[in-house]
Model the fold of this input.
Amino acid sequence: MSDLKKNVFVSKRASFQAGSILTQPMLQEMYDFPQRLADFSYRLAEYGEENCILAGMDLELKDGKIYFQPGICLLGGKLYFSAEPLCITLSDSAELKGKFYYVILQQKTGAEWLGVQEDALEAIDVSESNLPAAEDKCIKLLRVSRNYGALVLPQLKMQKENPFEEFTSSLPCGLLDIPYGCNGKTTYHPYIFKAVNAFLEQKKHKCMQDYALLLHLQNNPVVSMESVVFFINDAGIECDLAASREDIFVKFSQALLMVRQIAAVVHDKVNEAEQSEKTSEPDMEFFVSS
Done:
């Protein structure tokens, strides 16, 4: 259940109507939410009908609860701002049938007060069968498995054959569906790319593709989906943007591992060549005349 005592995300705007008087709340709202003064004015046009997170919303697990830190969301062409974390707890509702349920953000139209229209995003739990259609305005946050008694975020496991296994398994919380804005489209949440960055930092043998991706991630929170697919194709794996987000990530992790194996083979060949050169050099004896 979403532990939401009040609406964390709000969208406020001054409502100007013929004959209305400019009120103090209207002036305050224009001061507090300066959408048109930031770079959002041209960025929003890039996203078209996309519904996504534009900034912030970092993930944190604490005391069995998942917190989405403050951020900015775009839904139905409107910006919604949060000034406090959104807390998600495990639902015990008997109405959520099936193996999984989703936590989503949905629009909630509010009332107008003294010339200020306030809308909000409401966090709700819905079963997989009742998930809103694609054309409905909502943002998926978590895909939660009912087979676990607590919420757990997936972790990178370097000791496993596939270090990214938890990100695609049926662990309590699936994060691959979270739409995060990047270059006018959506990609994966920064939490996932932090795991990719950590993986690349710990790789013993890196190739040029690894260094390029690592350099980007150390200066940016996310990578565009187009770049992810390019990385996959460059590793010799067929993939395109029409595939599901989960299929793309599975191939992305395979590409990361495949590149690692190729780089390791090249590294070993170089070492063998160096050792061969050293053993083939003739022994040199130096005599010092008295």
Q: What stands out?
A: The longest strand covers residues 116-127. The two ends are 91 Å apart (CA to CA).
